[in-house]
Fold this protein.
Amino acid sequence: MNRPLRGAIIGFGFISGRGHAPTYAKSMSTDRTIEIVAVGDACEARRQVARAMFPDARIYDSHTASLESEASRLDFVDISTPPAHHAEIAHAAFDRRLHVLCEKPMAISSEQAKGMLQHALEARRVFFPCHNYKHAPVVKGTRNAGLLTETVVEELA
């Protein structure tokens, strides 16, 4: 790769601030395969935390402002807002030909989920929902110990 993948984090609450963002920050300081160039969040306190973690990123108070200003400089959007907003933000990203990483649950209805997937296909963009429990150490450990049935494991996935 000639340059890092450039991304925007939309929503900087617990999941993003404690999960996604530290991983991005580590990559930015080690292998430099990812660069977070923008963060959008409605909460001023969370924007301050994002500013401290990503001092070179541009910080916005909404996903709309983030995408309007940054889309031409982005490769992907990481959506970590409350689930009721996932579809709206994903569609806005696909409209701008951006790839999307989306926290779980990916949508609040099957119709929304189908619409998001269809839009990703039409835009020829990657849509990756973060349904990671199947690979969580606690799930793997209990599965390996025979404490979870395959049915329960599949439900967690």
About this structure: Residues 151-157 have pLDDT under 50 and may be disordered. The radius of gyration is 16 Å.
